[in-house]
Amino acid sequence: MEHVDGNAIAGPLAEFFAFDVTTATGRCVGCGSIAELARAMVYRSGAGTVVRCSTCDTVLATLVESGDRAWIGLRGMSAIEVRRAPSAG
Amino acid sequence: MSFITRGFSGRSRDRDERLPPGQTLVSDFPVLSAGPTPEVDTADWEFTIRTEAGVHRWNWDEFMALKIDDVDTDIHCVTHWSKLGTNWRGVSLDTLFEDVETEQEYVMAHSYGGYTTNVPLDELLDGKAWVAFEFDGEPLDPEHGGPARLLVPHLYFWKSAKWVHGLVMMDQDEPGFWEQNGYHIHGDPWKEERYW
Amino acid sequence: MSDATTSQVTALGAALQSVPRSGWHAATVAAVHRETPNASRLELDVDGWPGNAAGQHLDVRLTAPDGYTATRSYSIASSGSSTRVVLAVDKLPDGEVSPYLVDDVRAGDMLEVHGPLGAFFVWAPAAQTGDRRPVQLIAGGSGVVPLFAMASAHAEADDPTPFRLLYSVRTPDDVYFSEELRGLSDASAPLRLDFVYTRRTPDGWPAPAGRITREALEAAVIPAADRPRVYVCGSTGFVELVADWLVGLGHDPRSVRTERYGGT
User: For B72-122, what is each residue's pLDDT tens digit?
Assistant: First the structure.
């Protein structure tokens, strides 16, 4: 199954966060690598969206959407860093 | 805010009384995956059942030497599609559990690739579930869970774990991969047990 | 508690409550043109659109009379403060949404859009970011859309950053924004444009049609020694191949930003 990049799920993530979380960096609990969510690998299917670490494949996050309900799971990130002063653009 | 877009109908959605509520019929076989397709050679394949007493193991040849069932059944995916009259071959869980002694009543199915899903043991026995390795007369495609997948057709299809590798018995029902992330712990399509 | 901290707490709090689907806008199709034999250019007038950066995308939601909905992401070909948003949509053979957008939609139709989305795969003028490193854009097929937005924004801003686009495309007929790209890359213009034709070349083209090679890539991109920022957009296979080669050619992985588009 082909994957896309983390930036592709900015839309569904916008329901959970008041800022664009795809530019935030997270730390993978599997291998410890730290990268922007936009660089993660995203597997989308009708059942849900699975976000995996692009270094070690660990599941970082899951998204399930159904009509008026949506779930986010952040099982694979020990922390997420957001930049307080937004960069230009 | 939501309004109808003129001229848009989407894929055709047929109704049929054999369909559980909220389901529509498809003729193709949509692929649902949570990650890359694991490449599992039957030479390396192994299926295990782990209980409080120990582990039962089958390699591919041992597994293929077990009694094989032909299964005709309808399948229902939580994403609202159903397929009627699908044809499978596989080994019944009754056969696999013949020599397994356990007091534990719940099962976590584990897959190559890390996927898990939970099912109570009594929903796997009495002709209700198989480890299937053939679909429509062909070896099960890796995309659809080959070499072998769990087949629990009376529950939503996410319970029919692709690339199944083993079952671990549990004292209590615990949620698997999707069940931890919004999906229903049980998943009966006739009761529309889709989400929490 | 600082403002920044407050907003982070608010963001986390929002995840715990029922959240309205914010950021959805009603869009009216203002114009539809045939872009290539397999793609259409859609101009949308989006009520309340806040403007967007070059490279961002939006989600389009279509609703059928029985309530069935389908949502897909599309890159935006335009940027700036305008509420007129331009998309170019490629028709996928088994698609559910793209055939409607390419063949059926007409001026006056209404659809819903969510956006602008994605702040990672974007470009802004050096005057805003202070980043003066050269920029290499690499497009596979319809992956040119967000890169075209960047090249247009670059020309419009009169930005001094060196800009180069490598565009892999099936045939000369499949080139998106053909005229605009010619304008952006003529002798006096700031963009350097290179093509790779995978199925059929124009007459007299020096190279035979075929998939991009590592050598062709190396010849047509800003060398790693110049530390370019690289944006790659295309099918998953194309992006994977190109990104691996770029890293092999010495480009810093952190300077390579990718956008893969999946199936339907």
Answer: 999 999 988 999 999 999 999 999 999 999 999 999 999 999 999 999 999
Indicate left, alpha or beta for B177 from its phi (over 0: left) and psi (-120 to 50: alpha): alpha
ipTM of this complex: 0.88
Domain C126-261 has CATH 3.40.50.80: yes
Q: How far is A73 from chain C (nearest CA, A)?
A: 11
Residue-number span of the structural domain to which B75 is assigned: 24-29+49-191
Residue B17 lies in a domain: no
In whole angstroms, what is the distance from residue C238 CA to residue B34 CA?
Answer: 22
Please tell me the distance from the alpha carbon of residue A43 to that of residue B33, in angstroms, as a whole number. Answer: 7
Fold for the domain defined by C22-117? Elongation Factor Tu (Ef-tu); domain 3 (2.40.30)
pTM value > 0.80: yes
Residue B12 has pLDDT above 70, yes or no: no
Chain B CB contacts of C100 under 8 Å are 7-8
* pLDDT category of residue C11 using cuts at 50, 70 and 90: very low
Neighboring chain C residues of A54 at a CB cutoff of 8 Å: none
Cβ–Cβ under 8 Å, residues C121 and C259 = yes
CA distance A70 to chain B (A): 8
Which residues on neighbouring strands pair with residue B138, listed in sequence order? B135
Q: Contact at 8 Å (CB) between C243 and C235?
A: no
Measure CB to CB from residue C110 to each of B5, B9, B11 and give the nearest one: B5
Structural domains counted in chain B: 1
Taking CA–CA distances from A48, the nearest residue in chain B reads B34
Burial class of A34 by CB neighbour count within 10 A (0 to 12, 13 to 18, 19+): middle
Distance from CA of B100 to the nearest CA of A (A): 33
Contact predicate A59/A28, CB 8 Å: no
Contacts of C57 in chain A (CB under 8 A): 7-8, 10-11
Residues 105-144 of C with CB under 8 A from B: 105, 109-112
- Closest Cβ opposite residue C260 in set A5, A19, A84: A5
Residue B9 belongs to some domain of the structure:
no
Is B5–C63 a contact, with Cβ atoms under 8 angstroms apart? Answer: yes
Which residues in chain C have Cβ-Cβ distances shorter than 8 Å to B4? 63-65
User: So where are chain C's domains?
Assistant: 22-117, 126-261
